[in-house]
Amino acid sequence: MSDDDLDRAEFADPGGRSALRAPSRRNPRNLPCPTCGRPDRLTLADQSRGYQCDRCADAAEGWGP
Fold it and tell me: In the predicted model, is pLDDT for residue 21 greater than 70?
C-alpha cells in the first residue's frame, strides 16, 4: 500500500468531493453540522478542522440545493 493510499484511507469518500474523515471507533460521526445543525454529521477530526456537513459544503460551493 502506498503513502497516497494510506492518506486517502482516512477520508469518508476517497477520491470524491468530500473532505470529511471516515468514522471509526476512535473518531465516531457523532457531532452536529455547525451550519444546518443536523445531528451525527461530523467526527471530532472534522469539527477540529472547522468543516461542515457534505450537504452544506456542496450548497456553499454551488453543487447542491
Answer: yes
What single-letter DSSP state applies at residue 23?
Answer: P
3-state secondary structure of 21: strand
Region label for 37, one of left (φ > 0), alpha (ψ between -120 and 50) or beta (otherwise) = left
Rounded to the nearest integer, the mean pLDDT of the chain is: 86
Letter for the amino acid at 9?
Answer: A
Q: Is residue 10 part of a domain?
A: no
Domain that residue 56 falls in: 29-65
